[in-house]
Amino acid sequence: MTMNLELQGKRVLVTAGTKGIGKAVVGLFHELGAKVLTTARGQPTDTLADVFVAADLTTVDGCDAVARAVTDHFGGVDIIVHVAGGSMAPGGGFAALGEDEWGQELNLNLLPAVRLDRALLPGMLAQGAGVVIHVTSIQRGRYSARAAVATHRGGEPHCLPGFSARSHDHRNGVCD
């Protein structure tokens, strides 16, 4: 099977692109000829990204800095891959989590994507094309002691499509 991905020169943002899945995504886009900007909280020892931005995406300022960098370095974006996320919540299911834990989980896993999409999708709509991919979690479809992960990762495919529904864009979610 042959695939023609036509990514030469495409402008790509990959969040959390310095380790694990994110690093692999950055490497693949780089190999296929895309221009890649990636983020993490700390400076990586190595990256294949064309541009690296140290930013805490759990903050409005961090997301704003990344959106500005995308515009400043690339003039916009063609593809956004939201990899950032995880969980620091204690086990024990939804009842074990207090208001602060729920807020932290949503702020780590859902709000960075919302903030970046709000900042960058208008440019994608203006250029008439774009792709947004959300790396979610297998937990989103299961009941588990990791209820916070299931809730916010399950929320991405349902709340974020509203950003693109008016333009009939395709939305993609990939489970890790």
Explain what you see.
The chain has helices at residues 20-31, 60-74, 99-109, 111-127, 147-159, and strands at 11-14, 35-40, 51-54, 79-82, 131-136, 171-175. The chain is α/β, with parallel strands linked by helices. The protein has one domain: Rossmann fold. It has a six-stranded parallel sheet, with helices on both faces. 37% of the residues are buried. Keywords: Oxidoreductase.
Would you kindly provide a brief summary of this structure?
With 176 residues, the chain is α/β, with parallel strands linked by helices.
Features:
single chain, 176 residues, alpha/beta, Rossmann fold, six-stranded parallel beta sheet, globular
Topology:
Blueprint: E1 11-14, H1 20-31, E2 35-40, E3 51-54, H2 60-74, E4 79-82, H3 99-109, H4 111-127, E5 131-136, H5 147-159, E6 171-175
Parallel strand pairs: 1-2, 1-4, 2-3, 4-5, 5-6
Helix pairs in contact: 2-4, 3-5
